[in-house]
Amino acid sequence: MTHRAATSAGADETMAAAVAKGRRVLALEGAALYQLAESLDAGFAAAVATMLEARGRVICAGVGKSGHVARKIAATLASTGTPALFVHPTEASHGDLGMITANDVVIALSKSGETSELSDLIHYTRRFAIPLIALTANAGSTLGAAADIRLIIPPAEEACAETQAPTTSTTLMMAMGDALAVALLELRGFKSDQFKVFHPGGKLGAMLLTAADLMATGDALPLIRSGSGFIEGVAAISAKGFGIVGVVGADGALVGVITDGDIRRLIASGRTAATVDDVMTRTPMTAPSSALAATVLRMLNEHKRTTIFLVDDGVPVGLLHMHDLLKAGLA
């Protein structure tokens, strides 16, 4: 075997070993997550009820890797309708305890339940009767014994058995936080339009925009009355610049549309038209103004259209062009 072949074979073996190790970690953590799901009990329900009834915020606290998880849980709660913030236990001992009020609920994270930095925070919650939820693997620990409610993660093996670095345990804590957030979200009836308020930027914000957020309205709408002359319809298309005009009845309801393409096809056929009704499409594709902009974009793509009227109760209230959706970051 040549040196190059031997090197290649060695690299392949290394890659195969890496994949095998990765799969072992994911399988181990996946099994632990299933164990966590099976272990949920009245403590979880009590934690959700306590946070749901709180007049203040949910304070998440932890040190080290548990602190990173606590930050993420606080961020997830805050973005899904449950006011929350992260307080570092060390900073809490140096004045940040003043950020925690009697109306709040505290979730303290520690796998061992013996994290010394949590001591002042625990005493503070006991002194002022602030509900304390322990997220730990040790129910009998100092934290577990002091807490009003205990969320116990199962004693699953850490993925790095040699060092016992927090891996599986932090995954379980993260998942518990997600479970709490989603349970609260659904019990509050928190909807996508409320979620959008907390996520105005980036791809997620764009995906939560509605058609009403982007549509052209009022005088910008290209509309013409049914029975109007064909030449008037052509002029209306040109005047507004959307390449389309909506035809409305006496009651203001949309009864059809005419596009640039309809006019080209009419001319190519050698036919003539006296009124807009002679050439309009009588069953145009429409969407409600409350539809997600992403849904409207999908409709346009599927039907190979560039514009669509937004109709509420039969009346055109807006118009969306593909370019408006693209500029909003939906593609």
Distance between the termini: 51 Å
* CATH H-level homologous superfamily name of the largest domain: Glucose-6-phosphate isomerase like protein, domain 1
Name the overall outline: elongated
Architecture (CATH level 2) name of the largest domain: 3-Layer(aba) Sandwich
The count of DSSP E runs of length 2 or more, i.e. the number of strands, is 11
Total count of helical runs of at least 4 residues: 14
Provide the gyration radius in Å. 30 Å
- Measured by DSSP, the beta-strand proportion falls in 15-25%
Structural class: alpha/beta
The ordered string of helix (H) and strand (E) elements is HHEHEHEHEHEHHHHEHEEHEHEEH
Strand arrangement, largest sheet?
2-1-3-4-5
Number of structurally distinct domains: 2
- In the CATH scheme, what's the topology name of the largest domain? Rossmann fold
